[in-house]
Design brief:
Two copies of one chain form a homodimer. With 421 residues, the first copy, chain A, is of the alpha/beta class. Chain A is built from 15 helices and twelve strands. At the A-B interface, helix 1, helix 2, helix 3, helix 5 and helix 6 of A face helix 1, helix 2, helix 3, helix 5 and helix 6 of B.
Chain lengths: 421, 421
């Protein structure tokens, strides 16, 4: 008997798991994981402590406390421009991951196609596969700042299309979709009768005066849109595991069957913290954004000016930069591979077998570059190929790190690449 | 287009959701939800607060902090008698629900059969259905104190059997399996090559000097056993959402693919709290257990001595009593139904439609009794039929409530039933 299902065996091995593992076991400059280095705002921590002290440590309603749901509804009206019923159209989740996971499981059945703009967060593909659906990628290019073209999306639609995933700002590319493309996608969804899953986790992290457009705010679209959001990135609250899902009642009814069996409810201390984050002062978020912008410029200038063979266009949102490493790979793929098989060998062999095996190196140059940079320069970035078609040849580099560490990482990467020349 | 999948439409509507909803919107004595009324032990709260104050609010490794995994391993050796590798055989989860959910999704494919002793926690059936598997119930009877007979389990095995679920002590019946039945099930699993999922969440809550037997501790069984445990019930920590899963590496590898996409990691504050719970003083748990035992006797004596037409055998574990209401139903089913359709009507109509509709009343006498007791006596219990075959005709009554509230509930239920006579 195979202990796990064939479907599960076929899924890509742990990626976040591998990143977190390397971060835990190796001393390095971590530009890998999407983890704000900031402290959670003080008023949020204080609210969490007050909640614990008051004995608020029991289950909440499965949809979350009514107070928090009302605060989410108010935030959504204010920032995203659409109204939501707190009783029947919002569910608080333990991070945004259970929201994305449960939403896809509730709506995607065997054979249903899900259009996934690529490069994008690798969980989408895996979750669609777990649900029995078929991921259909639409590749965006660096030339278009990683925003997919509407025509290409239209071409990907078939009678089996059940959903498109919209994630703007986009992890890993930092792409921000303008109003035209969002409206265009909404029209396609209406014409061809499919759903939109809009992952808006990076909504607050946009630069250059841009803003984010929520599909659910477009007239008639609420009924076919699942909106996912949370506070992990905007408020440096990743460890709280707090997010939410907004959808029409019919989808909530399906989702809640999964949610009650896979979560019961989000952690109550985190719910109290989230209420404070949504109703308290805005300054901490604004201060972080100014600092992220400063780091964004540092990193872009460093990569384009100081590191040979790497280049980047500056992202418009998130705290990720999708760095072009094609020239590096053309010139030094074999050198890096050789390094990994000699000096880097002990590091590669230290990685858990269910997360990595050496055969993976033959599949992706980006992965070779990622592992080379870890073992030769102690800088953690992420292989672009993990993010689907269009990602090979790139590295995702996070600037959710201190200014000083980003400076250090630039110098180390420059050194590590000069060493190959 | 149907927005949710057919599979999801067929699933039973929200049950925990309905309980939590009623608990939130109605002032009543809540003997419904499995929620300890105790405060979380002080040293646990203090550890959570210290963790928040120290800025420990970021992601942990996806398997949980190494410190906590080591404490879990130590607890397991001490209490459960088997050894576990903290690096590759344990994953910390946000409550036990994501553990049960992900474990079944990772191992059960289309057509696989899962033996579920019944009555038991309703999530198992739904999760097996979500995974595409087939639940096969083995009914236990009150006469055997709700422990299933080994012969009946053996009869339920087919070549498609992939797993049996063991939950001892059992929610909702309080049954505790003795060594013979656990060993017998282990032999069957070996002979017929299937897995055991052992949900040990109520392990600490056993009375009359009994103890719990972990299947994974039996020689050769670790390789085919998934052990689920947590602190929600023993340490009154439901709101923390903290549990763990122990399994052989092959299953961990499959499970972690689901876990990283559906959770990323358990909340970090809760992980710090759990570490304190596992390594700190044991007295709070023992004190709670003594008090639960006192309440257990109060409730059993009250039901058997003071309330007409209800009876119970005293449970050996958990804080649930599975109360026989068959006599009540034989004599007064129609009276209760009539009450619900007149005086109780407004209450029924206040329930969210995706959780309840009036047609459900025709399917289960237990549900009629549950709703009658809510609307006529303001006491919340749970319909036995929700827990699968063998549950119809019973009510699950929790004694995780104050002594005074249990006294009050006994008086109110007695009054409500006398009213029908």
């Amino acid at each position: 008997m195979g202990k796990i299902t064939q479907k599960m065996e076929k899924l890509s091995p742990g990626r976040i798991g591998l990143l977190l593992h390397i971060g835990e076991h190796h001393k390095l400059v971590n530009l890998g994981i999407g983890e704000p280095n900031f402290n959670t705002p003080k008023h949020v921590i204080e609210a969490a402590i007050r909640s614990l002290q008051s004995g608020n440590t029991h289950y909440s309603p499965d949809a979350g406390t009514l107070e928090l749901r009302e605060a989410i509804v108010e935030k959504t009206e204010r920032d995203n421009g659409f109204t939501v019923d707190p009783e029947s159209e919002v569910i608080v989740t333990a991070g945004t991951s259970p929201g994305v996971f449960g939403a896809i499981l509730a709506t995607i059945g065997k054979g249903d196609e899900v259009i996934i703009p690529s490069p994008s967060y690798f969980a989408y593909e895996s979750i669609v596969q777990i649900a029995g659906g078929k991921p259909v990628f639409v590749t965006a290019t660096e030339k278009n700042q990683f925003v997919p073209e509407l025509e290409k999306i239209a071409e990907a639609i078939t009678p089996k299309t059940k959903m498109i995933i919209v994630c703007s700002p986009t992890n890993p590319t930092g792409a921000v979709w303008d109003r035209n493309i969002v409206t265009g996608v909404a029209d396609l969804a209406t014409d061809h009768d499919f759903l939109i899953l809009s992952d808006e986790l990076y909504e607050q992290l946009v630069y250059d005066g841009l803003r984010v457009h929520s599909p659910a705010a477009i007239s008639g679209m609420f009924e076919r849109t699942i909106t996912i959001n949370g506070l992990s990135k905007s408020h440096a609250m990743t460890g709280f595991r707090l997010g939410w899902l907004i959808a029409p009642n019919e989808i909530i009814a399906g989702f809640s069957k999964i949610h009650q069996h896979s979560s019961i409810c989000a952690p109550t201390t985190s719910q109290a913290a989230a209420l404070a984050a949504l109703t308290g002062p805005d300054e901490p978020v604004k201060t972080m954004l100014v600092e992220y912008d400063r780091r964004r410029k540092l990193l872009a200038n460093g990569i384009n000016g100081k590191i040979p063979l790497l280049s980047t266009t500056s992202p418009k949102g998130t705290f990720f930069m999708f760095v072009n490493a094609r020239e590096l790979l053309v010139k030094h793929h074999d050198d890096m591979m050789k390094f990994l098989k000699t000096k880097g060998r002990a590091f590669l062999e230290s990685l858990p077998k269910h997360m990595f095996n050496i055969g993976h190196l033959n599949r992706s140059g980006s992965l070779v570059a990622m592992l080379y940079l870890i073992s030769a320069t102690k800088v953690l970035t992420v292989s672009g190929d993990w993010f689907g078609p269009g990602g090979e040849g790139f590295l995702r580099v996070s600037f959710a790190q201190t200014y000083e560490n980003i400076e250090k990482a630039i110098d180390k990467m420059a050194e590590g690449i000069e060493y190959l020349q």
